[in-house]
Specification:
heterodimer; A: about 300 residues; mainly alpha; MetI-like fold; two-stranded antiparallel sheet; 2 strands; about 70% helix; about 0% strand; B: about 300 residues; extended
């Protein structure tokens, strides 16, 4: 092998190995930094809702509340974003006029180009007041149902998990749509033509060919969206109100903090390694969570591609 | 003797009319699908309208683009965001200088050297995982590495490093796709002429894929420039122009917006309100310009077609 070839091959392979190692390094460094804080922790890390980390000699912190709020916001976002994204993907691949489909797809992709801090500010300053009457109506009409019970930041219904979920859903649309669209586009033409030849209506074509073919891709895409939702930071830090003295109680009208928004809004407390370690421990949990979700998403997509 | 009437078909037609229920289902599906597209367009238009309508008040003044906020009070009209624009561009460019070569090398490995090998599969998988790493986790990793382990100060360079983690997977993905569509005929023709593999990649494959790679890189750059989370953790805000990326506080547009949000009032018509939305509009303009530039450059360097 010529020296030029050897150097170039090693260089590119090295870059590949570096990326593989990077994921391990992220986990390792977070873990190493989190251990001292976890050892100094007086409360149960997994099952406590307390968060007091200012005094490095007397810390007690737990992630239960963060975990619940993170999952709640992500679920609200997914419940809204999944059906809409499916509709958009079908629209772009099956319904939109062929000539305009590309332009329409570009419009959806533009949503992903808007910085998340702008979504956050728009969410709390513009969207929240606009949907407030609707939120109040749900809150009052269905308050007997725990999910819609008055929240812990009442009387405000603006800085809630509900608002955060709606904004997050908008941010997920382009992510879920783009992968779903890609899979739907690969539906074999003979399947579609076969269905058409049997006299299927357009919806029947979709139900019998596009959806069965693209189901795995759609689920995988939604899980990628979930991974994104779990880690979204600044938009949620801007929107969510922090309740004083109370915690998440299963209502979408609660406030609170997710893993990411908690870390982002308390960066000023990173004044000593041990206190910062508490936040890094929370970050480690978030990393593991997103890793698992992404892992599962990729596995689903790869598995269904196999058969 | 019976006669056949020719005014109606002898047998019942094979084709049945589409039943009403099927028609109705089809109609409902069509309406829902169109509706979901419209639902997605509404927030986009609404967000952009909000940014433009609220941000336009300060943008036309020349001092918005030429001054920093160092000499004005937090509630005083005036000053500009030059310091933040400098920071955003500087951090983005430093990030790109590190991330683009790395990402490109990885994609070359995946397409040219690793095809079908186990390591390539693992790499592709890890790139996927990396693209799912939340920006705040990337920021914490750089914090743990750069600040606690190495003992270095919070700086713009640390931000750029965190952005590198977010940019690499995007660059790898788009470049990989572009390299893959380069026809094998080109490579084989080059090998047949005795050109070494590395030279084939550098002189034949990369130039052919260049336009796509560049537009992918620019779009990745535009994406990371709007990131806020790493900025919060890794660098302080400064109202002054600052050029040293290894030391000191440096503003950037998202950080300025966050800073004004925390320290200033956000009610309509106040100075804080105008600064936040002015900075938002500036950021959107910069991102739009980069995307536009991506299209233009990729047109210019696109391989000539007959």
């Amino acid at each position: 092998m010529r020296p030029g070839d050897r150097i170039f091959k090693n260089l590119t392979t090295g870059a590949g190995i570096f990326v593989v190692a990077l994921i391990g390094l992220i986990g390792l460094f977070l873990l190493v930094q989190a251990i001292p804080a976890l050892q100094a922790n007086n409360a149960s890390f997994l099952f406590s809702r307390a968060w007091s980390t200012n005094d490095p000699t007397n810390m007690s912190f737990g992630i239960l509340d963060l975990l619940q709020v993170t999952i709640a916001t992500s679920l609200v976002a997914l419940i809204i974003a999944m059906p809409v994204s499916l509709g958009i993907a079908l629209f772009l691949t099956q319904y939109a006029p062929k000539r305009l489909a590309r332009a329409f797809a570009y419009i959806i992709d533009l949503l992903a180009a808007v910085p998340s801090i702008i979504f956050g500010l728009w969410g709390i300053l513009v969207l929240a007041p606009a949907i407030e009457p609707f939120a109040i109506w749900i809150n009052e009409t269905f308050s007997w149902f725990p999910v819609f019970a008055p929240g812990n930041v009442a009387p405000s219904v603006r800085g809630t998990i509900f608002t955060a979920g709606v904004v997050l859903a908008v941010m997920l649309l382009p992510i879920i749509t783009s992968l779903t669209r890609e899979v739907f586009e690969r539906t074999p033409t003979p399947h579609i033509e076969g269905a058409l030849a049997l006299g299927a209506t357009r919806w029947e074509v979709i139900r019998t060919t596009v959806l069965p073919f693209g189901k795995a891709g759609y689920i995988g895409a939604s899980m990628l969206g979930l991974g994104r939702a779990l880690g979204e930071t600044i938009a949620l830090a801007v929107i969510l109100l922090i309740p004083v003295g109370s915690f998440f109680d299963w209502s979408v009208f609660d406030g609170g903090a997710t893993f990411a928004s908690k870390i982002a809004s308390n960066y000023s407390e990173f004044n000593n390694p041990t206190s910062a370690g508490a936040y890094i421990a929370a970050g480690l949990v978030l990393f593991l969570l997103t890793f698992l979700v992404n892992f599962a998403a990729r596995a689903i997509i790869a598995d269904k591609k196999g058969d | 003797m019976s006669t056949t009437s020719l005014s109606s078909p002898v047998t019942t037609p094979a084709f049945q009319q589409v039943s009403l229920a099927r028609k109705a289902k089809n109609g409902v599906a069509t309406v829902l699908v169109w509706l979901s597209f419209l639902i997605a367009v509404i927030p986009l238009v609404w967000v952009l309208y909000t940014v433009v309508a609220n941000g336009i008040t300060r943008i036309p003044f020349s001092n918005w683009w030429t001054e920093d906020l160092g000499s004005v009070l937090s509630d005083e009209v005036g000053g500009g965001v030059l310091h933040a624009i400098i920071g955003t561009l500087l951090q983005g460019i430093v990030c790109a200088i590190i991330a683009v070569p790395l990402g490109l090398l990885v994609s070359i490995y995946l397409v040219e050297y690793g095809r079908g090998t186990k390591l390539a599969k693992v790499t592709t998988f890890m790139v996927d995982i990396l693209s799912g790493v939340p920006s705040i986790v990337a920021a914490l990793f750089i914090y743990a590495l750069w600040i606690t382990t190495f003992g270095l100060p919070r700086s713009a360079f640390a931000v750029s490093l965190a952005l590198v983690l977010l940019m690499i997977p995007v660059v790898v993905r788009s470049s990989e796709e572009m390299l893959r569509i380069v026809p094998d005929d080109l490579r084989e023709a080059s090998y047949a002429l005795g050109v070494p593999k590395w030279k084939t990649i550098v002189k034949i494959v990369l130039p052919t894929a260049l336009s796509g790679i560049i537009s992918g890189v620019m779009m990745a750059l535009a994406r990371v420039m709007g990131e806020t989370a790493p900025l919060l953790v890794l660098v302080g805000y400064s109202a002054f122009e600052h050029w040293n990326i290894f030391k000191g506080e440096m503003a950037s547009l998202p950080l300025l917006m966050n800073n004004e949000r925390v320290t200033n009032t956000m009610s309509v018509g106040t100075v804080g309100f105008e600064r936040i939305w002015g900075a938002a509009l500036t950021l959107v303009i910069i991102i739009a310009l980069i995307n536009l530039l991506a299209t233009v450059i990729s047109r210019v360097v696109a391989p000539k077609k007959k």
